């Protein structure tokens, strides 16, 4: 499954090295400097492998802790001929080694790789320095940043003998390239970003983490796209690679890591109410925790994201539940600065040994919906309902509809609409919307709306909600004038709920686009998208609305407006969960189609299709993704693939929809 080829993602660095080693270069080679695992050794190996393939003589020298105590220890294995006579004068041995390399250079060009040069003994370092000075032999030297080393090694770049190239961690784009090369197939952007975040661009960590996720089945290929869902699978190899000291920590020091693994960053005063301050100081000394000073004071976070994953994989659940409970209790005393803080505290409590907090869970369900994490919102709403929170059933029913779980939403919404509660009219209209968009049953929706309209006790607020959904039904049935009239009537009611306001805006945009009414398109879109950032009911609908607005823009020739709106929505949706990302990928793919970037559009729409299949979506997102994919394949001249996508789209909806 994992390709055997070495890591990629360093093409620009290879180009710099090639120029530094080329004819006419002003240096005798290059020093590759960087943190452990960043890819220095692989890069040096790759350079030597290519040089050998071109006919050059190559030699690989490695500095190690064990050989550091021996004079010329790094060269003992490679230069046996030069060192086979006992010499009383070490400098004579140095000269013999240098002469041997120079003699080889006379026969053909010589390239010497020196790995971990900061671990060289003094005489070995002197040999490398002299080789750089003599100017014949070319050198590729690696050093670990911040590790010191012999003066003769640091002089290689300080004296201008070798060009120094500082290797940065792999960029997000390079990380994705590495993954796709190793897996021999595309990976969705969200999964690639997750690897980037967890590894920090460390090539060594990336290779091991990727292998572990594939082996554990967490990284799977869906609709031709590799996707990573679920928790992190941690192998013994990953533990050894990232942090061997994790298994040797004392219990009090380990508790510092375990606490931060459940919630970071944490203010020092909060953390030190859970762990001892001297234990926190010890983790900082060991390089496991970073302490940062901010405007609000000192905060602590793990020095590397994978430290927390390693501890979570090995610590017991009862032990971690107790830590979460202590954190949730302490954070409640501090107060929540924003929605994210409330959600974080609620999740700690939900997964702790504390008693349920129904109101906190219900509030956090709404916040999670606003923050586009509908899966988490469902957990909170379910827990709130189980704890007896009034209104929890309605929040969960709404969230099920937004999740695209049409049948489950229909069951929940039907129960609310058929109850004797005062808000049953409200839930009947939401049920009608779910039937239209998620279950593709406009006839059943029409019956519900007609029954509501026949009720003479309907209030102005209830009428506005009904008209909002009626506008959607009219748009689907191509009654564009009626859709426009009903949508405007609904939107004129000042207290229209967020969900219904988005329904009315959707119906209005669809009708205006079909009628070619372009003057008000931008204004309607602006109001709807502003609403989506503040309403928990409307937040997730921003993607769907953006796609509908994009279709209207394409019909009316406003391509630049569509592209800019899609980018704006993308900018408002950073670090989003899987289902939200599938919606965003479809929106972005349609925007790329509109502006003619067909290959990029096909990549994005493939990611949307993979997300739809992964999350078992029954909404219009599924056929819409297939239709966009069909358009992309057709424009690329891929007729068979386009026909397959059309067939898939047709299988998602009734023939008469």
Automatic annotation (TrEMBL):
InterPro entries the record matches: P-loop_NTPase, TPR-like_helical_dom_sf
Domain of life: Bacteria
Spans through the membrane: none
SUPFAM superfamilies in UniProt: P-loop containing nucleoside triphosphate hydrolases
Identification of the protein by name: LuxR family transcriptional regulator
Species this protein is from: Mycobacterium colombiense
